[in-house]
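pasting for ref
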Amino acid sequence: MKYRYSKYVPSLLDGIDLDELVSKLSDLFLSSGFRSPWGDPAADDEDRTMQALHDAILEALFSGGVLSDDAVQQLLGDPADGDQEATRQQIEQLVQEIIDRMMEDGFITAAPDLDREQTRRETGGGHDGEPGQVRFEVTDKSLDFLGYRALRDLLGAMGRSSAGRHDTHSLSTGIEAAAASKPYEFGDTLNLDASGTILNAVQRLGAGLRGSAGRFAIDVDYPDLMVAQSEYQSSCATVIMLDCSHSMILYGEDRFTPAKRVALALAHLIRVQYPGDSLHAVLFHDSAEEVPIARLGRVRVGPYYTNTREGLRLARRILERQRHDMRQIIMITDGKPSALTRPDGRIYKNAFGLDPHIVAETFAEVSACQKAGIMINTFMLARDHDLVAFVRRVAAICRGKAYFTTPFTLGRYVLMDYMDRKTRTIH
């Protein structure tokens, strides 16, 4: 077979860290919907167009530090040359190469534009539509990668490079010895402490040891058995409840995208470091629904109220099916309970929140979680006085915790609570 070799021509694309670029695009990939809080819900796909991706890549290249200063200088050239058209074409070519590379590496895929295809057929196949309206889809690979990067950044901010399994203060009989040995009891893992077992037998037999030709026969009996102890490591079933009501994108900031980023990081942490644990995701709005973890990065907010009671009820039903040492609910919200599902299935709503009837039913569901042995830890993204009082009451009923945080510190609090709480639970 003959090979043809050509001269290597360096490209600006070679100097771009694609992983770092994808991280810079996380806000676009995990967009919560409603580009304008008061916008039309039917137009919430505008941030999934190739034009939106094109603009986000440009911002990451020139403002996000993805390109070095030398690369930027090489790309823009000398303004005195005056050939701005050639510079623009070079930038457009680089952006297109990046999009093509992201597709090749499986970070995004081109979504079929059904409306555009229908228009093309109706006009006889000659109309292609506006190129800027071509949409893209974020792949599972991208969401998993963003979860990994979010976890790495959050753990790095806490001064931890890695995390292990959930250690507790209790001791169990296992393979790795971590404490003094103990007498064997029925049901213990038979990880014998040989020296301790023989010593017990020798002390029991004393001068009654039998031997010949310099050899001794030691009869080991059941009471002599000693087993090594290892640290007891618990398992946990967790439901993360995300508020996807309209308030999560109001008040001048997007609170839902950081919440999704934390949920993805937590999912990656559990899958990699705590494989014995389980994680489920519940969205609560006018009602509540369970969503697969794989879909978590694609969920959006909507023009919804906040049905906290229904979210807690669904989470409790999920956890009651789990057989783990611990069961907990991580609730991330910023609004007062403002909706309630009636027995006949209708939704009762009160836009002002903290309706006495809604609050009473919500507290009743919190009590049901407490009776089922389920801990509720609430992470609040707002500081309204009445809401603070409500959350503290929830924490008091179920003996959980209430964290009053911001979108910027949410991840650190959630992960620290998840990794540290178990060491204080099983004794």
